[in-house]
């Protein structure tokens, strides 16, 4: 079964690979002896590719996380939540609020 840890590790591995790809090609483009305008175009294309792949990896990770949580049985999901709610009205001050305590009761 796939765990959240394996999903995150795979995502990190993809991002590291993408960063290495970007850095390698960035340095190669920077060293080229071509017109600066053409360099800017190449760098812009590289940047666009990087952003596209980054978004793609994020979407894949989100899909896998959704699949992971949807595959959990109801016993594995803890449905017993507790909350502490505090209603403060600031009585007898210039900043008095009305109904905060009542909101907590309902």
Description:
The protein has helices at 4-31, 36-71, 100-105. With 106 residues, the chain is an all-alpha fold. The longest helix is centred in the middle third of the chain and has 36 residues, at 36-71.
Oligomeric nature of the chains: single chain
Largest beta-sheet characterization = none
Helix content: 55-70%
Strand content: under 5%
Shape: elongated
Round the mean pLDDT to the nearest integer and report it: 87
* Low-pLDDT stretches: none
How many DSSP E strands?
Answer: 0
Ends apart, CA distance between termini: 42 Å
Q: Which value, in Å, is the CA radius of gyration?
A: 26 Å
H/E topology pattern = HHH
Task: Report the structural category.
Answer: mainly alpha
User: Count of helical segments?
Assistant: 3
């Amino acid at each position: 079964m796939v765990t959240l840890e394996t999903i995150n590790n795979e995502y990190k591995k993809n991002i590291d690979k993408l960063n290495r790809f970007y850095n390698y090609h960035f340095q190669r483009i920077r060293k080229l002896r071509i017109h600066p305008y053409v360099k800017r175009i190449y760098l812009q294309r590289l940047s666009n590719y990087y952003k596209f792949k980054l978004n793609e990896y994020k979407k894949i990770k989100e899909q896998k996380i959704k699949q992971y949580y949807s595959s959990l049985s109801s016993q594995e999901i803890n449905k017993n939540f507790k909350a502490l709610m505090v209603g403060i009205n600031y009585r007898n001050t210039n900043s008095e609020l009305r109904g905060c305590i009542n909101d907590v009761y309902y």
